[in-house]
Write a structure and sequence with these properties.
about 425 residues; two-stranded antiparallel ribbon; 15 helices
Length: about 425
């Protein structure tokens, strides 16, 4: 249970945290970033930060010193991920172990981001090849049956739960997002032929089929003005529970993209209701930041009261679609983007470059969750400190960043960064 925090206890908490963090000298950095000592949690429920700090320092030594003018640039991306790498990955398209959903989709999003940043058709052409291969690999189009012997319009996996091959809502959402993003951009290319338009139309139709197939999981008793999916047959032990926020939000983004591609207002309305469900179940803290849980209990009434905060990895999947909504002024506003940025700077960042793996509540650290720290970079649009913290963390600890990590470093770098070559190499 969360302990109520009074103003005086907040002060004592901050002093205690500051004293503990100060025991550890700042990590060496090529960048003069005063922000590293600026942010401390405003209302943690536990002062037991020592295990978190020691675990972080044991895992991350800030020992790498790459060329700061090269790291996180387009040249760096091309060096790490040349054509041969994309060709190899393309030949391995599969979601049997969830790879297509959790890894390949994120690589495809990197191509989307870098196409937007550069206008280089190299990124769009590779993205096109991936989209075609992914659709061709859909179970009903490739002859793969689920555990009940059915050919379904999704990408099944036997990795989870009872090891029975099933199509998961979150997998569909993640896989479709970069395909829909591609379609939105391809439709705007000049000199398109009738054959190109027909091909793109079929691609979008396949996406629509998959999204609407999951309608059977919609809760008919969703809260007024909201939409929420049930777990259903995906997880028999929680058949009647609501899907976690990260799974829902990616569907909200997909439906908004589908609306942009088709002009069908019913898809925009579905997106609005899904985003509204998340907005109405997050808690605004005294620090004017947002915290939330992994999922919303189905039968809990009243205003949101977060007891166990979400982890940084799953939360990053919840955040990515919301960043777009904030930008578009759709359900969320620019002020909300600043509040989500404060989730990172005031709760995830404990001070002195030390990051925890919970978005608030009780401090925690789990090494397996740290690979998604980079996914919070889009929040640098609201607060450049997010960029400085994460760029420094990645540059000094991650020798080979993920494609999407580099894409985000390029896309969200603050203009005129002092001491760093801001050109796109």
């Amino acid at each position: 249970m969360r302990i109520p925090v009074s103003p005086s206890s907040v002060g004592r908490t901050l002093l205690a945290i500051a004293a503990l963090v100060s025991l550890f000298p700042p990590f060496a950095s090529a960048q003069p970033e005063t922000v590293l000592d600026r942010n401390l949690p405003a209302a943690q429920d536990s002062l037991d930060l020592q295990p978190v700090i020691y675990s972080f320092k044991e895992r991350f030594t800030y020992g790498l010193n790459p060329d700061s003018t090269w790291y996180g640039t387009l040249g760096h991306f091309r060096q790490l991920y040349p054509d041969s790498t994309w060709a190899a990955k393309l030949s391995e398209i599969s979601n049997e172990q969830g790879t297509l959903a959790w890894q390949t989709s994120q690589d495809m999003l990197a191509l989307v981001v870098l196409y937007d940043q550069t206008g280089d058709l190299w990124f769009l052409r590779w993205l096109e090849r991936y989209c075609e291969a992914v659709i061709a690999a859909r179970d009903d189009l490739s002859g793969k049956k689920d555990c009940e012997g059915l050919l379904l319009p999704g990408w099944g996996s036997s990795r989870y739960g009872d090891s029975k091959r099933k199509v998961y809502l979150v997998h569909s959402g993640l896989i479709l997002e970069p395909i829909l993003e591609y379609a939105l951009r391809a439709a705007k290319l000049p000199d398109r032929s009738a054959a190109d338009d027909e091909k793109l139309k079929k691609l979008v139709e396949h996406c629509r089929e998959t999204l609407l197939w999951h309608d059977s999981q919609l809760d008919p008793e969703s809260p007024p003005g909201e939409a929420v999916y049930l777990s259903g047959g995906e997880e028999p032990e929680r058949r009647h529970a609501w899907q976690p926020f990260n799974r829902q939000n990616v569907l909200a983004r997909d439906f908004y993209l589908l609306f942009q591609l088709t002009g069908d207002e019913t898809y925009r309305e579905r997106s609005r209701k899904l985003y509204t469900f998340f907005r109405d179940h997050i808690e605004r803290t005294p620090s004017d930041a947002y915290v939330w849980e992994y999922e919303q209990p189905r039968f809990v009434q009243g205003p949101p009261k977060v007891i166990v905060c979400e982890d940084v990895s799953h939360a990053s999947y919840s955040i990515e679609p919301v960043v777009h909504a904030c930008r578009d002024g759709f359900v969320f506003e620019p002020a909300d983007l600043h509040r989500f940025a404060r989730t990172f700077t005031k709760y995830i960042h404990l001070g002195n470059g030390i990051l925890q793996t919970s978005i608030g509540c009780r401090p925690s650290f789990s090494p397996m969750l740290t690979e998604r720290f980079y996914a919070w970079l889009p929040l640098a649009q609201a607060d450049p400190h997010v960029y400085w913290l994460l760029r420094r963390f990645l540059m000094h600890n991650v020798e080979k960043p993920q494609p999407l990590a580099i894409a985000y470093l390029i896309a969200y770098r603050p203009k005129g960064m002092a001491g760093v070559d801001t050109r796109v190499h």
